[in-house]
Structure formats: C-alpha cells, structure tokens
Fold:
Amino acid sequence: MQPTQLNAAPDQAHRLAQTRRLRLAKDVMDRDWAEPLDLDAVAAHAGYSRFHFVRAFKAVYGRTPGRYLSRRRIERAQELLRTANLSVTEICTLVGFSSLGTFCASFKRQTGLTPSAYRARHAAQGAGHIPGCYALLWSGGFPTLEAAREDRNSGEAG
Structure:
C-alpha cells in the first residue's frame, strides 16, 4: 500500500465520527427547537467546544447552528401561520423566539414576506384553522392537569 492509502482510512473514520457527533447535536436542535437552547450545551452533545462546534457544524451542514435553528423555527412558524388561529406574537413565542422584532426580521429574510403577509397569502392553502387554545395546549402553553393539582395542593400537609 502507498502511504496516502494508509492515511485515507483514518481520515475517513475521523470524518465519519465527526459527522456522527454533529448529528447528535443536530438531533437535539431538531427535537428541542422551541426551547431556549444554550450553544455550549448543544456543543457538548457533539463533544466540542462552542467555537469548534460552530466551525464544524457549518462545514458539514452549510450554515451555523444558530441559522439552522432559526430556519427550523421559521418552518414551524410557517405551519402555524397557515393552520392555527394564533396571533403572530403567540406564534413567535411558541416557536422559541424571545423577540418579536427578531422573529419578524428572520421570517421575512427566509420567506420574503412578513408573518402577517405570509398568513394572508398562504392561510387558504393550509388545513382548517386549529383553535388557538388547542395549539397552546399541544405546545405546552397551558399547565398540565397534574401541575395544576400540585399547585393547588402545594400548601397542604404531606
């Protein structure tokens, strides 16, 4: 074997291991997209420092983790705008943005439309509107029955 062939196998194994570790972190972002995600914690899933993680993620997926997460959140917001009877502010919060201004700017950058204009153009193409109370219940916007009972019984002696 030539020396370049000997080095090719470890390089390929290293790239494969790197991709697996990055996929673990990407899975966390795909699963917990609506939650506030700390870059250090997500990077830890891949076994990287935050700075190395950002560089490696961008090299493999073509965008930074922040842009990837923002894209996932906007995709979910598009669905809610088409199908749910919720305000833009409620959708902004449900999909994980803490600022309405950032949400609207990101949404327009990705879709070319403001959230309200997107709803006006695409709402008829979606399924029937889901009442806002159901959407909030599904997303965890309301406390569960058990949590409500615990709050009510928290002052009682155990």
Remarks:
- The longest strand covers residues 84-85.
